[in-house]
Design brief:
The complex is a heterodimer. Chain A has one domain. Chain A has 20 helices and 2 strands. The longest helix of chain A is centred in the C-terminal third of the chain and has 32 residues. Chain A is mostly helical. In chain A, β1 and β2 form a beta hairpin. Helix content of chain B is about 70%, strand content about 5%. The chains are: A mainly alpha, B mainly alpha. At the A-B interface, α6, α9, α11, α16 and α17 of A face β1, α5, α6 and α24 of B.
Chain lengths: ~500, ~650
């Protein structure tokens, strides 16, 4: 079997192994082994990828593998990676690894929980390695569907409502994506030639501009829903609030990135002409997302709502940067996906750990937790600092790349929205410091909280993994940024040529 | 050219100490962390002194100019082919001078805190943060490019946040730390936009290129303009906003007085001697750009500085909390430095203001750190920040008393102490370039002498208060830094600054201008005299005076209500008028629309689900009646 397919195979094998597990203990050990193997494989992939590039292999896609799947419609199982997908795979492995440890003590139906969770991750991995649009969509659905069960069964609060809302809104997005993909498929080749789902072949053939104008908005919106594009973001606060810890982590950390990745790789890359024409509409929506999400977070009282609105703001920045369509901004978009994925996963992990102790997520019912939970408190502060873009942590690298990239456009419209987007760094500081100030500092609000115990070893492992990744990206961003840049170059040339 | 690559270790040693103490500090006795931090800083200070001696005295000026040397530089992050953030070390007169200032004051604060913070919970954390701050501040001054400066600019901001909020269980400290961070963050937004504009126009972040006389800024011809000012001017104004935020310039000053919630050694280090002068340093760093390419931006700097110095001095007169008096005094003195830059030209004697500003930065760091550390010793002894709880302390604390007096005389500008020399140069520069600013500076000199001696007499003279236990002198570990800084305050005025730190790197001869020196000493003496009459012995004059100018007194006491204005902006505008409506809109409009869609579908399907009831008779009925209707319809249509 080729190397990339293992990324789908390992989760599937893990799921199968869990079926034979007897209890929680075995389940989580199997999950931990499986996801550790996945993380190890990822490390190897990053290494192998960089080694290939260092050896001078300049092909756009490495480790390619292709099997015909359904001849009459020319559907293939085609996989391959470039610098961008390697980065996304690395993100996913880290988050799912941390997620397994964060849900170490799932006592209600643990086997089913871990099965759904890991199955979901296999969909995500499949999505990132696919080069065939049909396969990509298939994996996309695999990733989205288990979410319904995970929230509906293991969630808290109005979980059925939230699960239904989230799933239906994302399905609405899926419907748009499917129509869009079919539109792309039927325009994928000149008349009389074999139609194709293959990303590169479609790009080489080019889609007629008239068709682009029609299908671009569908695809961008469809993926945009998953990327929490205003005004289709309202599944996010409710969904995250009800979801169990690991699911929030994976959803905000990785699944929302499928939206950004898809919007970039499918919508923008395949239909650059329409993207150039229509970008302004979506730029307005995304810059609204950025500011609106940030202000929305300022007054929330539930930790998860704060983080959900913060995600709207940060993911808005991803889509915003994608629409800027130049090398620097696109690089920033990918970096922001990585960065947001890591720090939001950290946030949700910590919120879950705090909730598990205090049984509340309302910040006004907590206070002074730093004193009783120093480890979790420090980790929360670090997550907060990453979120508000402190240099040395990942957020800064991503945001600055985006802002510098966006500022390369010289017209007044782009200047205006860029400056508007930059104001979010101040508002972010406001809501982050508000939470930190109320939740961690000050006197202890509730005397029951005096006897809480600090993080256990699995919680520490989960947290430290994420913090390490955040710091690694924040302190040594060059290798990641160069890896992404290399693969972006041909894509940007294609987009620029469409101007 | 000399190899300065070892200077990399000056910031890296404190960083290593931060990581070491932060990660392992809790495993040892707290005092170990204190020693580790102090040791690290000692090494850094030693390296800094060596660098200064080598740079200024051994190597000296090359061809009459002090060179700007990039000792270390490596690409950290690439934006475009030409724009990339480098991390490195830049050695030039001002960065070397700042190395000396930072490591000296930081080392003194490290020593002092061994006594002052003894027995505090979080002693190790305190030293970890001090090391983090020292690292960030050193990285800031050594920055080779504007983006590196921005990086460390943010890092000093966060260290300041952490240290102001050191007593995190105290709500006022938490609020103050939050305020400091958010206000400076807001200013940093200006800085960032300025950087974006500047880098887009010039296609570089590099200081050496930006400030070189044949670089893109200075050679640029007008270019696009907005409201009559060029892009360069606008970008430099925006960058100055960042500097104004950090340096607590009006109207972004409100965070500084509150920042006094932090432990007093922190106030001495961060909020008096080093971080708050970062804004001055920033303008000085880009000075050729300001002076040659954007004189309009430099005027802004000058006027903001001048106004702040007056504004803060007026407030300092009425404050009761001794640390706040010092905080407003700091604002006022930094305003002086900004003003001095604002009235400076470029090159040779024209650059007197620039030299004076850097000179004053240096001397101010010494005497203001001394004042704060002295204040710390006093607070330590009487357990209060308010001068109403103090009086007659000269008997109990002789060393603190003498060193504090020296510092007061220095800041008042009495010759031959250092403050006199640097202030004199500032006033001389102002007199020749801008009479209005000279007038302000002159007045502020008198006010400064007055409020400092008001402070001095209230603490050390006047009546004895009822103390819980007899105040006693601080331990030697705390008085040594006081003595050291007192010596520095006395003698640093004799440093030949005009031979070392000048706007164009070329030494020039600065003369003491008697026309300025004599009046400025006279007005300082007048200020001191007034303070002596009013405060040396208990007297009713202050109250009567306050009564006669009630409005102004109240305005000054309430800091011109700026806190209230800001509170209105944050609590009302941001929370009540923007965020809450957005949150409401999101729930009740956007989300409700989505729910409406869902509701419509559910309702509609409820309505039509009756069609599929599963009852055979009903289906048969519908079938038959439909057939009948259709048959009738067809018959009708055909017959027609």
């Amino acid at each position: 079997m080729d190397i990339l397919s293992w990324f789908v195979a390992i989760p599937v094998l893990t799921v199968m192994a869990i079926l034979f597990a007897k209890d929680l203990k075995q389940t989580r050990i199997i999950s931990a082994i499986g996801m550790s193997a996945q993380l190890g494989l990822t490390t190897w992939l990053v290494y192998a990828y960089l080694a290939e590039r260092a050896a001078g292999n300049a092909a756009a896609w490495l480790f390619k593998y292709d099997v015909t799947w359904f001849t009459s419609l020319n559907i293939h199982y085609t996989v391959g990676v470039d610098g961008i997908s390697v980065a996304m795979i690395a993100l996913t492995s880290v988050v799912i690894f941390a997620g397994v440890f964060a849900s170490w003590r799932t006592d209600y139906l643990p086997r089913e929980f871990f099965i759904s969770l890991i199955l979901l991750s296999s969909g995500v991995f499949g999505f990132f390695i696919s080069l065939d649009l049909f396969t990509m969509f298939l994996f996309y659905e695999i990733a989205v569907i288990p979410m319904y069960l995970l929230i509906g069964i293991w969630g808290t609060g109005p979980k059925e409502y939230s699960a239904m809302k989230l799933t239906l809104m994302l399905m609405g997005g899926s419907a748009l994506i499917m129509v869009g993909l079919l539109g792309v498929y039927f325009n994928s080749a000149p008349a009389g030639q074999q139609l194709t789902f293959n990303l590169n072949e479609i790009a080489a053939n080019g889609i007629p501009v008239v068709a682009q104008q029609f299908f671009f908005p569908m695809l961008f919106l469809g993926f945009g829903v998953l990327g929490a594009l205003f005004p289709f973001h309202t599944w996010s606060p409710d969904g995250h609030a009800s979801a169990p810890t690991a699911v929030s982590m994976l959803h905000a950390g990785v699944l929302m990135k499928l939206g950004g990745y898809g919007a970039f790789r499918v919508a923008i890359y395949l239909m650059p002409e329409a993207a150039q024409d229509q970008a302004w509409i979506f730029i307005i929506l995304t810059s609204v997302s950025v500011v609106y999400g940030a202000f929305g977070a300022v007054v929330q009282k539930d930790l998860k709502y704060i983080n959900a609105y913060s995600s709207v703001s940060h993911c808005g920045l991803v889509l915003f940067a994608i629409l800027m369509m130049n090398q620097t901004a696109l690089n920033g978009a990918i970096l922001q996906m990585i960065s947001h994925g890591l720090m939001t996963a950290l946030f949700f992990a910590l919120i879950g750990m705090i909730y598990g102790r205090t049984h509340t997520r309302m910040i006004n019912e907590m206070g002074g937790l730093m004193k009783v939970l120093p480890f979790l408190g420090v980790a929360y502060v670090i997550a907060g600092l990453a979120s508000l873009g402190l240099p040395g942590l990942s957020g800064f690298v991503a945001e600055m790349t985006i802002f510098v990239g966006a500022y390369q456009h010289t017209d007044l419209f782009h200047r205006f929205v860029t400056i508007m987007a930059t104001t979010s760094i101040v508002v972010t500081a406001v809501y982050i410091l508000r939470v930190v100030g109320v939740l961690l500092f000050g006197p202890i609000r509730d005397e029951h909280h005096l006897h809480l115990t600090d993080a256990t070893w699995w919680e520490r492992l989960s947290t430290v993994t994420l913090i390490t990744a955040i710091a690694a990206v924040g302190i040594f961003p060059l290798w990641l940024s160069d890896m992404i840049n290399f693969s972006l170059r041909p894509i940007v040339e294609r987009i620029v040529a469409a101007l | 050219m000399t190899n300065y690559s070892y200077t990399l270790f000056i910031p890296l040693i404190p960083l290593a100490m931060f990581l070491l103490i932060g990660l392992t500090g809790h495993k040892f006795k707290p005092i170990v962390s204190g020693y580790a931090g102090t040791l690290g800083l000692t090494v850094a200070a030693f390296l800094s002194y060596i660098t200064a001696i080598r740079y200024f005295f051994i190597e000296g000026a090359v061809d009459g100019t002090y060179p700007m040397i990039k000792a270390v530089s490596t690409v950290w992050l690439r934006f475009t082919d030409t724009l990339h953030i480098d991390l490195g070390v830049l050695i030039d007169p001002i960065s070397v001078m700042m190395l000396v200032v930072i490591t000296t004051v930081s080392l003194m604060v490290h020593l002092y805190s061994l006594g002052y913070m003894k027995g505090e919970r979080g002693f190790a954390r305190f030293y970890a943060f001090l090391s983090l701050f020292s690292f960030s501040m050193l990285g800031l001054v050594l920055a080779t490019n504007i983006f590196q400066m921005y990086i460390f600019w943010e890092l000093v901001g966060v260290s300041s946040f952490l240290l102001i909020g050191f007593y995190y269980e105290k709500p006022s400290a938490v609020a103050a730390s939050k305020k400091a961070f958010i206000v400076t963050r807001f200013a940093d937004l200006g800085f960032l936009i300025g950087i974006l504009m500047l880098s887009f126009t010039t296609d570089t972040f590099d200081f050496k290129t930006l400030t070189s006389l044949d670089g893109p800024i200075i050679t640029s011809t007008a270019g696009a303009s907005f409201m009559g000012l060029s892009v360069i001017t606008w970008s430099l104004i925006f960058i100055f906003i960042g500097g104004a935020g950090k340096s607590a310039m009006f109207p972004l000053h409100i965070w500084l007085p509150d920042a006094m919630e932090g432990p007093t050694p922190v106030s001495a280090l961060i909020h008096a001697a080093t971080m708050v002068v970062a804004g001055v340093y920033l303008v000085a760093r880009l000075f050729p750009a300001y002076a040659i390419a954007a004189p309009d931006a430099l005027h802004v700097v000058g006027y903001v500085g001048g106004f702040t110095s007056l504004f803060a001095a007026v407030i300092a007169i009425t404050q009761i909390d001794i640390k706040r008096v010092l905080a407003f005094s700091t604002m006022s003195q930094i305003g002086y430095m900004m003003m001095s830059l604002g009235v400076s030209g470029y090159g040779d004697h024209e650059g007197l203001g620039y030299m004076a500003s850097m000179f004053h930065l240096f001397t101010h760091a010494m005497f203001k750190a001394l004042l704060f550390l002295g204040a710390g010793a006093i607070i330590h002894a009487v357990h209060s920040n308010n001068m109403t709880d103090m009086g007659g302390l000269r008997k109990y604390m002789p060393i603190t008393h003498i060193t504090f007096l020296i510092a007061c005389l220095t800041i008042a500008g009495i010759p031959p102490l250092s403050g006199f020399w640097s202030k004199d140069e500032i006033l001389a520069a102002a007199l020749h370039h801008n009479p209005i600013l000279f007038g302000i500076g002159f007045g502020v000199a008198g006010l400064t002498a007055f409020y400092m001696f008001r402070l001095y007499y209230n603490i050390f003279w006047g009546t004895d208060r009822h103390y819980h236990h007899t105040p006693h002198e601080a331990p030697a570990i705390m008085t040594f830094p006081l003595l050291f800084l007192a010596v520095a305050s006395v003698f640093s005025g004799f440093l030949p600054f005009s031979h070392m730190v000048t706007s164009d790197g070329k030494p020039f001869e600065a003369h003491t201008d008697m026309l300025v020196a004599i009046p400025s000493v006279v007005i300082a003496l007048i200020g001191i005299t007034f303070a002596t009459i009013m405060y040396k012995k208990p007297s009713t004059i202050p109250d009567r005076l306050a009564g006669s100018i009630k409005g102004l007194y109240k305005a000054s006491l309430n800091k011109f209500w700026f806190d209230e204005i800001y509170l209105f902006v944050t609590k009302r505008v941001i929370f009540a008028y923007i965020s809450r409506p957005i949150a409401w809109f999101d729930r009740h409009v956007v989300d409700a629309t989505m729910n409406l869609v869902g509701w419509t579908v559910t309702t509609a399907s409820n309505k039509i689900k009756g069609l599929q009831s599963g009852q055979l008779q009903q289906y048969a009925m519908v079938f038959v009646s439909s057939v009948v209707i259709l048959v009738l319809l067809f018959v009708y249509l055909i017959s027609k």
